[in-house]
Amino acid sequence: MADECIEGGNVASDAAAIAVAFAAEGFDFLSLSRGGKFDDARQPRVGEAAYPYTGRSGYECMPSYYSDQRGPFGRNAAASRLVREAISAAGFNTPVISGGGIHGFAQAEDWLADGIADIVSIARQALADPDWFRKVRAGAGETIRLCRYTNYCEALDQRHREVTCELWDREGLADPTVTRSKDGKRRLIAPPSASPAE
Predict the structure, then answer these.
(1) N or C terminus of the chain: which is more exposed, having fewer CB within 10 Å?
(2) What range defines the domain where residue 145 resides?
(3) Which of 74, 96, 121 lies at the terminal end of a domain, its last residue?
């Protein structure tokens, strides 16, 4: 974790020291996230489980487009860069995987070119369009369903429901072959999208 985002928790400089120790031990790679801790989670109601995305650290892990002045994109960049530079300065070449609000191909490429990470991870964008990687590889970026960062998916997860994306989970429900959620209101698999030439 690049930054725990909780009072008294590890910050980027701590993560850098830990990362160097892991690299020295021969780790194959280091994957950096941010926040999402139970430590500052809101107290759950009786009968509900604690959920790590309800406090400040949760917001830092999964910011939405209802954001502060920094916005929801790339919030892990500075900490990831610090960790990667510390590993390199210590003489190791352990790859760093980082994500956190990676919205599109250009931003992912910038992170790689700017030395923020060796590998870029995406989660919500991959849920919004499971064919993202294939479309980017084929040069068909204009066909990608872009995540709106509303955290619709996160709200479903918080309620322990099957996680889907609002961009596609109501499409084609008239088709009797569509696999549906337990309540029958949402499809569980993204519909086929525009297929770029390979």
Answers:
(1) C
(2) 123-193
(3) 121
Hey, is 89 helix, strand or coil? Answer: helix
Helix (H, G, I), strand (E, B) or coil at 88: helix
**How many domains does one find in the chain?**
2
**Adjacent-strand bridge partners of 119:** 97
**Residue 140 to residue 198: CA distance in whole angstroms:** 10
Q: Judge contact between 191 and 167, C-beta under 8 A.
A: no
Mean pLDDT per segment of 10 residues, for the chain of length 198 residues?
94 97 98 93 86 88 82 89 97 95 86 95 92 89 90 90 96 95 95 64
Q: Is residue 6 part of a domain?
A: no
139 dihedral zone (left: phi>0; alpha: psi -120 to 50; beta) = left
Q: Is the CB of residue 143 less than 8 Å from the CB of residue 193?
A: yes
Residues 148 and 138 in one domain: yes
Coil, strand or helix at 92: coil
Sheet of strand 119-120, all strands in order from the earlier edge strand to the far edge: 30-32, 96-98, 119-120
